[in-house]
Amino acid sequence: MLPSAQAVPSTGSAAPPSSASVASRLPSPTEATNTCASCHSTLTDATLRTPAKEFLHSAHRDERIGCVGCHKGDPRDPTVGAHSPSTGFIPHPTHAEVPRICGGCHSDAAFIRLINGRLSVGQAALFNLSLHGKLTSAGDPAAPDCSTCHGKHDLEPPSSPLSPVNRANVAKLCSGCHADKERMSKYDIRTDQFEKWQKSAHGQAFLAGNQNAPTCTGCHGAHASTPPDAASVAHACGRCHEQEMQLFEQSPHSQGFRKRGLAQCVACHGNHDVARASALMVGVGPDSTCMKCHSHDDKPRQVASDISDLLRDARERAAEARGAVAGATAAGLRVAGADYALDQVSTAEQKVRGVVHTLDPARVQAVVADIDSAVDATLTLVSNAEEARSRERRGYYVALALAGLLLVTLALKTVQLDRRRRQAGP
Amino acid sequence: MSSNEDRKEVPRRDFLNVAVGGSAAALAVAGGYPIVRYLEPPPGRAAGAVRVGKVESFPVGTVHTVMVGERPVLVVRTADEIRAFSALCTHLQCVVAYSPESKQIECPCHGGVYSLDGRNVAGPPPRPLQELAVTIDEDFVLVSSAG
Amino acid sequence: MSVAGWLADRVGWKGIEASLAAHRASRRGFMFHVGGITLFLLVVQVVSGILLAIYYRPDADHAHASVERIVGEIPYGNLVRGVHVWAADLFVVSLLIHLFTVVVRRSFRAPHELTWVSGIALLLVGLGQAFTGAVLPWSEKAYTDARVGSEFARYVPLVGDWLHRFMRGGEDVDSETLAHAFGFHVAVLPAAMTLLLGTHLFLVSRRPVTPLPQAATAPTIPLYPDFLVRLGVALTGTMVLILSLAIFWERPVGPSADPRTPPSGGLPPWYLLPAHAILRAAPKELLGIDGPTFLFGAACVFGLILLALPFIDRRGSRLTVWLAWIALLALILLSFRALP
Hints:
heterotrimer, B: Rieske Iron-sulfur Protein, four-stranded antiparallel β-sheet, 32% strand, C: mainly alpha, Cytochrome Bc1 Complex, Chain C, two-stranded antiparallel ribbon, 14 helices, 4 strands
């Protein structure tokens, strides 16, 4: 038999059941029957029939789980005796009960392992850490429980594209509530996140098909979803942008932001609307992010200006390399190794974008020197190819001249032979 | 025997023959020069397979980073085989490295992770690492730099 | 005695010179040089091919990269490959022009039947060389050429499936195809070419070309030195043409072929375009037989007629000339129809 309602662990952790008691709770495959569906699917009342039909496709349709996995009751009784209270039957789990019911199995590692060894456990505990969980267990009907996101009777595993929590669908799922002004007004939470995300570099990458790009859960987590606070947002960004995070922590901004309670990363790059960082963000110009705070500070202004100049130099040199290769290719020249050389330039450019976070012009200069040498290597390749071609052309013209000479002498020889034949007579 | 007339004619005929022969010979030399340069062993970076070390310097269960030409390459030795992969991450071309603690190949830029057979298993990399052909010649491991 | 004189004596030049001078050739007509130009192009192919074979790797993993290396890194590699690619096309064109002029001048008549037959065989071997050679770079174009070109083989009646497998070295176009193509291109076909060419030239020397009745009184010149000097002019001009094309008109290798994601669609090599047009225009059924097979069978019959031409048209009638012009026009039109 399945774990009954009384045996469900509460929000804390319960001792994991011994394997013997788990085994005794599971009916053997030949004994397991699910008579609920056989009766409910014939009922005329749609609200009673539809769940049974939907459940046929559910991820939970394994007979060892079945309807009784959540609703309890007696699955072997084909009569309405199956509904009797003595069986612990729960016809309509309340909002607050849902996480406890789901957690009954999904926090039981030994049990889950027997059903599907690949699944993780502990989601209920994580959920209770989140604001979603706290509100739901307090009974707030607007907050989500497990079924709000995962589905109910027609629940699909997250790996299925039909599941609302599948990576491709997460943003739509979250925005279903979080973009709803009416719903969110109660909690004083903004509703522009989804819209901003769609326009952001992350959103654009995701919508262009790169499912590795972050969607809501990538930064906020899933079950324990919590907006990162000012001090910890760098760790959210740093999950992917690890280099930048480490470099940032070596900069004076790291402590400075912490002292003033400023959000790392977000203060300069924004959060939901984060755009592709442009070199114009650095420096003393009108679009500069630095100047938003430092417009009147001499030393920061100098640092910003220095770094901005270095970035400009790097940009120009990289463009020089790319232009040289493009020009050579357009002229029909084959520059051997050009792809790899330009890759080196791109790698160095990528490094520069990272090292800017240290705010140390010396370190930026060191990386810009890498760009310089990569660019020089590229330009050498191009000029070698051009030189080889002009050598080839010169050789061709020499050969052409000699061929012309040969043609002329052969033609003269022909004329001479003809004349000799004519002179020799018929 | 040659008479005076013959002697007068012979130089002219000979001259044209010499002219034809001479320009043909010059053309042959002009054509021969590129052929000779073509046949000389090519200068600079040798393509084809490069020796990266003796087989025994890659013990079983290790991953080493070597340079093939100007590219960093990971040489992975498992119990059954030696494989080589370009050490350039397929995400944004940063150089990946083996982490003995986690027994996998990791990219320091954005946290990409590859298994020991080059497959991208976590993080942003969209494709497995490019595999390079490995041959064993006598005691040496050769890695193809042609990719 | 001069060096030249010493050599001449050792080689027995006097006898050779006399024999060469005794042969007479027609004084006028570029058509008489086409055979020599074809032979010259073959020599160019052999020389440039041997040079390429030094750096080329004949296995599917390295073939494309080795060609890219020749073109990008080896000094004058670009030139050698350019010459080989252009001379290949010129060789096929020259073969076809030579065939055409022989038909039009009706030089296939007795006693030149064997010369003709060996010539047709040479044409087939030459086309085989062009086909197998195109596969070797293992680029996307090479792959497409191999695949589309060998698809036609299916429709040849009777031996179609066998020919299909033979051309591909198996069922699909894969590394086996490349291995087969290489073996044929550098060994089997050159050997066949050598034998056939030796036969062809021997027969030509034994039985110099019979002029047409109306040209019987046209002035002739000795083969040596007069005709050969003129031929020298033609060959030098051909060489200038090849070099100019190789230097100024790039034939890019193109991206590497990936048999796992093969390029879809595509055209066969240009000399197979007529076959491609026939295949596309073929109705589903003709007289109860599968349409394309019928038409290809008809083409094969045409080929057999061509082979047996000296025995069919013994006197060299005008009709043959007319048919030759019509066939040429038809092939050109079909080729253009095949283009997208």
